[in-house]
Design a protein that fits this description.
Pfam family, one: Glyco_tran_28_C
Protein name: Glycosyltransferase
Number of domains: 3
Largest sheet: 9 strands, mixed
Number of helices: 21
Organism: Camelimonas fluminis
CATH superfamily of the largest domain: Glycoside hydrolase/deacetylase
CATH class of the largest domain: Alpha Beta
């Protein structure tokens, strides 16, 4: 079966990501598939795209290592209209290609500054008549974010929207976990391909080959290697053997910098632009001096060149330093940090590299392009078996099931009504990956969130984490969240007992939540298991509460004098089943009924409450929450409201 594959990539500094994507696309094309690259970085002069369609978006780049400061072709900051145009071009390309497989290079592990663009592309792919298999594509070593929240957000995207990850590495050299703490449940979705070599691996020169001569210094495609190139000129000037030093300068380096290098060059140095016969030069050189980017490392392995690497490490970058250390530990290169480079140290490293004899027997898997193509074929053919617990087909099912909900909102809009929703999440006690996924979802859709925290168990770490989330309010979820109901009764902590004692304990819970969360606290009582004694309710106002929240439509706006009631109505968790997602059609029916009740003549305008429990969410539940929040955010007749607004509406009505 001939497949159609789209690879989306934006390279911002060097050309490594684009080169790897092109290698993968060429391997797919060579196997009879239609391969398309959607490229968002600057055009690369020496890119090989034989048999591959290239869709060029309005190009972006960065200055230095400021990857969040995206620049357009003329150097101006990325404008909203350019961002929209990039998305439109990519979406149209997907619509025309109708790919069987979509591959995103680096995202969601990186390119967070382009997160909205990649999400829009994923949305466009999901909206196709036949949504494609979705794979992430990453190199051997990733830049680990400083904040765990960013790692958790990437994992949430992988669970909700991806079918697998192509890891272009040899795990015997470096597994992904060496640089990225991949979650245990995602490890089965990793597929190691070996390193993706831009050229087919070549055998080392035969014994009768001419003697190697000269030093080749290369700096990749960008200006990031200029410090290394200047250091190489100093070494060439001091070289006692007066060897020829050939410096290859990337095509993205400005002509003024080239001129400066030429003026500083001694007679035994040649300054020229990067050449397509680079590997031939390496096969004949006495030693190679370079950084240690992904493709450069493979050039060294393929040609057997005695090599010195000076890894790029500006702006806190650690990728090349880790790779250089790993390769040096295997005896493949001489590794020297840029801050240690002088004419003397560089010449000594070159001598050590020559003495080592090069990398002719490296033992590293470098057949990653062909292996990736075969993996893609297998995954596409066996898609139902490899999709992350049904998530990808489930997204389609949820979107289809919520069609009647959209129709109900359309009807409300036609009648001039705006339907209010709110979101309550129960049982928070500490920061967790599940909580991070929930916060990411609500932030992405600008959706206020009311978190019902357990007072006796909530930690200061949770308070510190939520302090930076202005869209979050904190409610009082009982006291200890323990079942104190009689043996023959349904579970409840505040459903039975002396009402005065229940009110005292509820007040204690409010005091604890206020002490931890301060201004984020809302004096709203949310009894565990949504059950409160009728005798407690009129005493809650005296304990300091202004609101009560349970489950199902409230009987009245006020549960007692001074106590507004705002309930939740939709719970997506199958508590009596597998504790995963309730059937999407059942949830859609419940939502339609709630919308009808909200919009009925003289109806109680209680916002429709979504109730979640982040600690027990799986990818199916996360997918439902994401799609529902997206529908509400996008529909002109729907809005998410904060609990403050819901309570104030009740107070005004009184």
């Amino acid at each position: 079966m001939s497949l159609r594959i789209a690879i989306v990539v934006t390279h911002l500094l060097g050309v490594g990501h684009l080169t790897r994507a092109a290698s993968l696309a060429r391997a797919l094309a060579a196997r009879g598939h239609v391969a398309q690259i959607i490229s968002g970085g600057q055009p690369a002069t020496l890119l090989r795209i034989d048999g591959v369609e290239l869709i060029q978006l309005p190009p972006l780049h960065v200055v230095g290592t400021a990857f969040s400061n995206l620049r357009e072709e003329g150097g101006a900051p990325l404008r909203p209209e350019t961002a929209r145009r990039r998305i439109a071009i990519a979406s149209k390309a997907l619509e025309q290609l109708q790919p069987h497989v979509l591959v995103t290079e680096l995202f969601p592990f990186g390119r967070r500054a382009l997160g909205a663009e990649f999400q829009a592309i994923l949305d466009a792919a999901q909206g196709l008549a036949r949504p494609p298999l979705v794979l992430a594509s990453v190199r051997d070593i990733l830049a680990r974010p400083a904040k765990q929240a960013k790692i958790d957000a990437a994992h949430a995207l992988l669970r909700a929207r991806y079918d697998g990850v192509l890891v272009h590495s040899d795990p015997a050299v470096v597994p992904l976990e060496a640089s990225w703490p991949i979650a245990d449940d995602l490890k089965p979705s990793l597929h190691y391909t070996g390193y993706v070599d831009d050229n087919r691996p070549a055998a080392p020169p035969p014994a009768t080959a001419p003697t190697r001569a000269g030093i080749v210094v290369s700096g990749g495609g960008s200006a990031a290697a200029l410090p290394l190139l200047h250091a190489a000129l100093a070494a060439a000037t001091s070289d006692p053997e007066r060897r020829v030093w050939r410096l290859l300068v990337g095509h993205k380096v400005a002509e003024a910098a080239m001129t400066s290098l030429r003026h500083a060059a001694p007679a035994n140095a040649i300054i020229e632009r990067a050449r397509p016969d680079f590997r031939d030069l390496l096969r004949r050189c006495a030693a190679s001096v370079s950084q240690c980017g992904y493709n450069t490392a493979l050039d060294i392995l393929a040609t057997g060149a005695p090599a010195v690497v000076v890894p790029f490490a500006e702006g806190g970058e650690t990728e090349q330093a880790q790779r250089a250390a790993l390769f040096a530990a295997r005896g493949l290169v001489q590794n020297i940090a840029l801050e240690e480079v002088t004419a003397t140290t560089l010449l000594a490293a070159v001598s050590a590299a020559q003495a080592s004899g090069g990398t002719s027997d490296h033992g590293v898997a470098v057949n990653g392009a062909d292996c990736s193509a075969q993996l893609i074929e297998r995954l596409a053919a066996d898609r139902p078996a490899i999709a992350s617990p049904g998530v990808t087909p489930l997204i389609t099912a949820i979107a289809a099931a919520l069609g009647p909900v959209k129709a109900a909102l359309d009807h409300a809009g036609d009648a001039g009504r705006s339907v209010a929703f709110w979101h309550r999440d129960d049982d928070a006690v500490a920061p967790t990956p599940q909580l991070e996924r929930l916060l990411e979802l609500t932030r992405a859709h600008h959706a206020p969130l009311a978190i019902a925290a357990i007072p006796a168990r909530a930690t200061s770490e949770l308070a510190d984490r939520l302090a930076g989330e202005p869209h979050v309010a904190v409610l009082v979820h009982g006291l200890n969240h323990e079942n104190l109901a009689p043996a023959n009764a349904k579970k409840g902590e505040f459903s039975h007992g002396d009402p005065e004692e229940l009110a005292r304990r509820a007040g204690e819970g409010l005091a604890r939540i206020h002490a931890l969360f301060g201004a984020q606290t809302r004096p709203v009582f949310t009894p565990p298991w949504n059950r409160a004694s009728p005798a407690l309710t009129p005493r809650l106002a005296g304990a300091g509460f202004t609101g009560l929240s349970t489950f199902r439509r409230r009987p009245a706006r006020f549960a007692a004098p001074g106590l507004a009631q705002v309930n939740a109505h939709i719970d997506p968790i199958a508590w009596r089943g597998d504790r995963s997602l309730v059937g999407p059609a059942d949830l859609a029916e419940a939502l339609c009924q709630a919308i009808a009740g909200f919009t009925a003549p003289a109806a109680d305008p209680e916002p429709i409450g979504l109730l979640t429990h982040h600690l027990v969410h799986d990818a199916r539940i996360d997918a439902f929450v994401a799609i529902l929040l997206g529908l509400i955010a996008a529909h002109p007749a729907a809005r998410m409201t904060a609990i403050d607004d819901a309570l104030s509406q009740g107070a005004a009505a009184q």
